[in-house]
Amino acid sequence: MSNVTLIIAAGVIVMISPILMLTSQGRPKAGQVALVISAPWGPNAAQIAEKSGVQEIAPERAPLGVLVALDSDQSVDRLYSNGAWLVINGKEVLELCSI
């Protein structure tokens, strides 16, 4: 039974490692690209970005996320106050997605 537990734990670690890499980075700064992730209920990420006054930069939207250009150091605070779950560095997301 312990082998099954180890296999399941290893599988979970492998599956969440990209998410851990993205969330463990520092807070994005002004002039950088950020990925805004929203809750499945409530306002979507595009609405949060629009309400926060930041510009979307990608031609496509994900169901729970949108890429934006941060114009000031307060952009991240505005995104969180308008309902964003996470605001993470978008450069690595662009590299992962090959955009």
From TrEMBL:
Membrane-spanning intervals of the chain: 6-23
Transmembrane in keyword set: yes
The organism's place on the tree of life at top rank: Bacteria
UniProt entry keywords in alphabetical sequence: Membrane, Transmembrane, Transmembrane helix
UniProt-recorded name of the protein: Uncharacterized protein
Species assigned in the record: Parasedimentitalea psychrophila
